[in-house]
Amino acid sequence: MIEQKGILFILSGPSGVGKGTVRKALFEQDTHLRYSISMTTRNMRPGEQDGVDYFYKSKEEFERLITQNKLLEYASYVDNYYGTPRDYVEETLEAGHDVFLEIEVQGALQVKENFPQGVFIFLIPPSLEELKNRIVGRGTETPDLVKNRLNAARDEIEMMDAYDYVVVNDQLDHAVSKIQSIVQGEHCKRERVAKEYKKALEVN
């Protein structure tokens, strides 16, 4: 029997494009996917659990992991580190589960450097006008912040060449079904199947 390893899928795109909404809808339909649990140095909040919401580490522990190249990506926000632990991802993949990482563009580019065998999916809005409407619709941004976000989005969209697939988030169900097709297609890729099949033949 062929036992396929899991695949790391990275969903990325400009802020406001709807990455979180698409990821949640995808997970409601695809129960075999595993969400990548992040690591952080911020304090645990009431109701949170270590290894469920985040892996909680001290600043010293986190910085040691950085020097040991044990993070696929990391960033610092408001005096706290956040990152993706390599060991957790690799162990989950070895167990045959696909791992899904939803992340900003800069983080995705770090992952590409550290884990190039991942599958990188870029989520884009149907238009910048639509992105502007979504950001304004949140009601949390000042006009200046909206402008800054749109400028950043324009720069990030130019980075789509670093990705394997591009999905337009026009309608939620369309975007989700396209990502499901990508997941299935990647598992059927000749080089993945052939490698595992040849291994199985050697065993027999």
UniProtKB/TrEMBL annotation:
Identification of the protein by name: Guanylate kinase
The reaction(s) this protein catalyses: GMP + ATP = GDP + ADP
One Pfam family here: Guanylate_kin
EC number: 2.7.4.8
Subcellular location(s) of the protein: Cytoplasm
Keyword Cell membrane belongs to the record: no
Recorded GO MF terms: ATP binding; GMP kinase activity
HAMAP family: Guanylate_kinase
GO-annotated cellular components: cytosol
UniProt main location, coarse: cytoplasm
Guanylate kinase-like domain boundaries: 6-184
Keyword NADP: no
Biological role stated in the UniProt entry: Essential for recycling GMP and indirectly, cGMP.
Family: Belongs to the guanylate kinase family.
Binding site for ATP: G13, P14, S15, G16, V17, G18, K19, G20
Organism annotation: Terribacillus aidingensis
InterPro entries listed in its UniProt record: GK/Ca_channel_bsu, Guanylate_kin-like_dom, Guanylate_kinase, Guanylate_kinase_CS, P-loop_NTPase
Keyword field: ATP-binding, Cytoplasm, Kinase, Nucleotide-binding, Transferase
